[in-house]
Amino acid sequence: MLPKDFLEALSQKHTKSNTFPSTSAVKELFTDIMLTLFPEQTQRHYGCLDELQEAFDQIELRLTRLLRSMQKHLDEDARILATNYIQKLPEIYRVLLTDVQATLLGDPAAQSEYEVIRAYPGFYAIAFYRLAHALYEMNVPMLPRILTEYAHSKTGIDIHPGADIDEYFMIDHGTGVVVGETTTIGKHVKLYQGVTLGALSVSKEMASLKRHPTIEDHVVIYSGATILGGETVVGAHSIIGGNVWLTRSVPPQTKIYHQEQVKILN
Amino acid sequence: MLPKDFLEALSQKHTKSNTFPSTSAVKELFTDIMLTLFPEQTQRHYGCLDELQEAFDQIELRLTRLLRSMQKHLDEDARILATNYIQKLPEIYRVLLTDVQATLLGDPAAQSEYEVIRAYPGFYAIAFYRLAHALYEMNVPMLPRILTEYAHSKTGIDIHPGADIDEYFMIDHGTGVVVGETTTIGKHVKLYQGVTLGALSVSKEMASLKRHPTIEDHVVIYSGATILGGETVVGAHSIIGGNVWLTRSVPPQTKIYHQEQVKILN
Amino acid sequence: MLPKDFLEALSQKHTKSNTFPSTSAVKELFTDIMLTLFPEQTQRHYGCLDELQEAFDQIELRLTRLLRSMQKHLDEDARILATNYIQKLPEIYRVLLTDVQATLLGDPAAQSEYEVIRAYPGFYAIAFYRLAHALYEMNVPMLPRILTEYAHSKTGIDIHPGADIDEYFMIDHGTGVVVGETTTIGKHVKLYQGVTLGALSVSKEMASLKRHPTIEDHVVIYSGATILGGETVVGAHSIIGGNVWLTRSVPPQTKIYHQEQVKILN
Amino acid sequence: MLPKDFLEALSQKHTKSNTFPSTSAVKELFTDIMLTLFPEQTQRHYGCLDELQEAFDQIELRLTRLLRSMQKHLDEDARILATNYIQKLPEIYRVLLTDVQATLLGDPAAQSEYEVIRAYPGFYAIAFYRLAHALYEMNVPMLPRILTEYAHSKTGIDIHPGADIDEYFMIDHGTGVVVGETTTIGKHVKLYQGVTLGALSVSKEMASLKRHPTIEDHVVIYSGATILGGETVVGAHSIIGGNVWLTRSVPPQTKIYHQEQVKILN
Amino acid sequence: MLPKDFLEALSQKHTKSNTFPSTSAVKELFTDIMLTLFPEQTQRHYGCLDELQEAFDQIELRLTRLLRSMQKHLDEDARILATNYIQKLPEIYRVLLTDVQATLLGDPAAQSEYEVIRAYPGFYAIAFYRLAHALYEMNVPMLPRILTEYAHSKTGIDIHPGADIDEYFMIDHGTGVVVGETTTIGKHVKLYQGVTLGALSVSKEMASLKRHPTIEDHVVIYSGATILGGETVVGAHSIIGGNVWLTRSVPPQTKIYHQEQVKILN
Amino acid sequence: MLPKDFLEALSQKHTKSNTFPSTSAVKELFTDIMLTLFPEQTQRHYGCLDELQEAFDQIELRLTRLLRSMQKHLDEDARILATNYIQKLPEIYRVLLTDVQATLLGDPAAQSEYEVIRAYPGFYAIAFYRLAHALYEMNVPMLPRILTEYAHSKTGIDIHPGADIDEYFMIDHGTGVVVGETTTIGKHVKLYQGVTLGALSVSKEMASLKRHPTIEDHVVIYSGATILGGETVVGAHSIIGGNVWLTRSVPPQTKIYHQEQVKILN
């Protein structure tokens, strides 16, 4: 027999009913949204406009039901939120196609849009981020985070749903990338594996401030670079070299490289 | 037809029966333990103390059967080990609640205990580590490693089940974290992504020695820092900056930062 | 109702039939190949040579059917390719056993071949790489990348199927490792977590050139090291220290360490 | 190798695409309709009117999509048919509750409505018949038959979806019951296992005529009785005994028993 | 939108929580009991006494939890009932082996005990009846009926869990067999397909009386025979011919045959 | 604790390894054979002759492996038997198409070949019988019976795999049909629900004799008729009426009807 106080403490948690949907229900719905937008990833296709519209109608209803189950955490009626969300999909789709384009142009190994959509973890993580961000903007709690953590688990790329990321975004390889909640990223930005866009300080009082950097258009940030702080701005067309550690702003067109100090014994 | 010597070599392995349980059986049981301890992660709740006690009784029996199938690798009877293990759950649970607390206080973005339990990979990896460590302490082979590798696969956080980690432990983002087998970590320690607590030398003869560092209470280690060696001690209340490479001890209250050398072209 | 032009654009993609197999079909087949070669990972064993040969015959046919469904992307008849692929399995198997051996000898914590095969993500990633590389050499498109990305997703280790890696290869911990498409790696090479073997430039015109480094025999590369460029050669028996950033060749027997510059405040 | 003419004949069938939905998709949707109408059979409940309405909205859309996939076999647009079908559910539900009532009153062993809904194959077969009949009336081909055959397979009760059956219908035990396409059954009719309401002649020319009997209100037909022919009318309040073979009409209030001729040797 | 009164009526049912376990949970547990008692039906075997005892311990706990979820319908504590039930399994098993024996001896086509256990629907239905009857005797509601209806659905054999059936019982083919709630069957009785042991009257007031016949030892009842009435006794060693309709008692050793009246036109 | 002698008796059965394949493996393979021969029942089609041939090659290998697992019960090598079996499929297919034709012509309600294949339990049971009979003829034990019992469970139609049934065979409705092991059925025979073609005596000594009737060409047997005995021959073009009980031969062209004796009270 286990101690009664342990069981009683646990029992209190068990008897509170869970007012958020299960992770698997969230994953399943948003994976289906992905597969409807990117049929490259599946064998199940829709043959005509009616079928496609009805597929989205069904997605809208499944989202309504998901949101309905957490209605008390929402600002508006579940159905209205779901309808609004679906209306955002064409724009999300348009932006995701720019992301595909960015990867295709930016990686010598990429051979086709099809390959980017099928096999690039960077694209996968960005897609889930964009789907999550739209929920985040509607003040839906928990769900955005569940979505980006799902993508994090599959790709090692951790983009907070609150980040603000413009079009033509690309992440190559991507394992270890961290993009913080209040990060702002412009157009045509490219990140490599292990890049951190993080906070300098993590005191709880700062929760409502901009704690993460701003990356302007056409910036490239190589693997392992770390850029920290809410007031740090990386000017447009800059290149941040691998392993660079940056905690202050740099003007546009900056090229900054990690100056290696090594000791050689041979 | 494949070469006969290939088939014969393979056949020898196939005819040896597998004396360890399948990975999926291990994952399934310990995931159920997680869901019983943290009903936040599931929709399946237990309504009364009897049900809860019986849920643990069933877990005990499932563990007995898992261990029974590998009895010949164990120091004690499967049933006794299983019973002992279940008796440890209340303490594991207590400590995990301190870990939740640490994350809630340590991450400005975290909004509730519920969110930490539901959506933080750091908590997930720590929880599997603590469940695995308790098996490791009972000299159960293979299983602890299977558990921590499962969490590693989901989170990118690789904590060896042999590490010794005290309460109020927190890992943020976490991808790329490595905590070696003989690491010792005090209370209120916080790690960020990409931190390695590793060995300096990896010669086989050292297998039984302490090869990994000691981190005292209230230490914070920022992203990408690497701390190596069994005699390296990071004193209490120290802060190890991002990307720092440390192979010797530092006294309490040390703040050590990576001094960036960069070349700027703009 | 969603905008008609959005639906029409999407509909065009949906009506093109998918001429590559589903990711789940690919994963399932190659996982079964893994489990047939390494029965340590499963409870399903084959009792006699006939059964084993027939298991491979069935794998050959399943591969034929997978390839048949993408015949128009192939240089040769699906059946011939599948037969050739199966004939390569004994050699792939032989090399993978050297990789197991390398890990067993190279990690003090590893206790048996069985443990390496069951619980080391490095081995898992290498095994999928070797299976994918054999397809890559037969000019089968998409599939090799799907396989290595699957392993990437599970392990955080991203090895391009085009890389050329000799026997006795070992990766420890592994999260964040990136090995580029034109990398060449000799025998007895050991990588730790976070190592990048990458390209210096990523312009599209370079797609057909050697863009990634050459690592000769018996080299060890510690965690977080980055080695870039198609003309960079790391000579045999060299040791590249953790966090080293290397963009030029080093002769054999070189030991190169990251010279830490730190600022200490205590 | 199989004969080429066999493969070619088969190939012709394989290349015709299937313009009816899969049996499993049909079963799944209508099982969900059942579970929404009769939550006694499931653990998944809907907490409020909104959720319930949205559950039906989703059912309507799933039905739309099922019908859309077979649009070319339909008289009307899939969406209109689906909407009309859902509008019929309240009436189908009302009638099914009368059937539950009839069983509860007519079987001494039945203890509650709950038990009838959970555990009576007769009720299950009638429910699927009523759901199928509403589709049949809308000239939807194949689906009604797939539904009643599914129920037949589970219960041994074979009711053609074309039969016309009024409220308070009850079947006890039911295995072997056959109710033909043009059968008419009044209110408060009760059938036992093995009852056939069939055709006398089965020539193809009769396909469009009434070939099966009419059973008026308050008739009881005991096990193994066979009633045949489109002009056969069993008058109201009649009782047809077990094993009776009837091919002509009987007036109301008739009680007809099988007169056993037995040979006894003892 | 569906009519509000319909939704409201339905909503009342949905908000009542279901206090009986799901059919699938019941089926799964008792199927596992079957497979533990008759490993002939499965590939999962237990290697030693400890494993076997622990398998039953786990079954006991799973039954406890099933019963716990319906505690308010039970006379005693779920755990006590479950323990008592498991204690009955050895006797149920002993009797089932006599049933196997009876089939093996009674069907010329049966070739081994193994075949009877693997492939005879009669044995399957009897086994589920015996497992259900033991619950019925403990006044557990609903579950016994769910079990026998499950077997009915698979075999077409409908044995009420309340029937009282002695050892060496055999049913051949079986489709259409009905055995009523208050039937009593002696040792060494053999039934063929389509046999009904039923009630003469079905008025609700008779619910608590013996409404179904008594069949004494060593009786054979051929296909399609119907025996009705609570006072009808078929004496030991009697043979009831196919299609016989019997509503009164016959003394021991009776042989009664259906005297066919046929009209021949040729 | 359960009694030791019970556990020991059971343990003996558990430690004997099961030398027949699991029922689910058998069902799965033969269901796939069905779906390959009758793509009407599935959405998975094969596009070209190569794919079709390879589908059969895979079926052949799966059958080889199934048979290999029970090699010690077979007269010949598993691979040879499997190859021979596949060679029989074109003829089985040809005959099954005659059965479809017979149903289409013989049931006024049948509207297309497609409907017969999709929704007629009679066709389903015949198809499984024909697939099982071909195994039976090769002296493969257990499997044929497992297949026909599977169809029995789904349709209520129990055809012994040993029966000898010629082409253009049709069963309508079918629940309760029993066709015994040594039955012989000619061309163009039609059975309705509840027909038994059985044995007169069931003594074990008769196991190797013809115990079941012979039905010549163009015979129709209506619902509930019973025909018994190994020497009973129903001459060609005869019609056996519903509920007829026949234990002796009738010449060709016979029409025999059950002469109902009824007692009417009205």
TrEMBL record, chains A, B, C, D, E, F:
Keywords: Acyltransferase, Amino-acid biosynthesis, Transferase. CDD domains: LbH_SAT (cd03354). SUPFAM superfamilies: Trimeric LpxA-like enzymes. InterPro entries: LbH_SAT, Ser_AcTrfase_N_sf, Trimer_LpxA-like_sf. This is Serine acetyltransferase. It comes from Flectobacillus roseus.
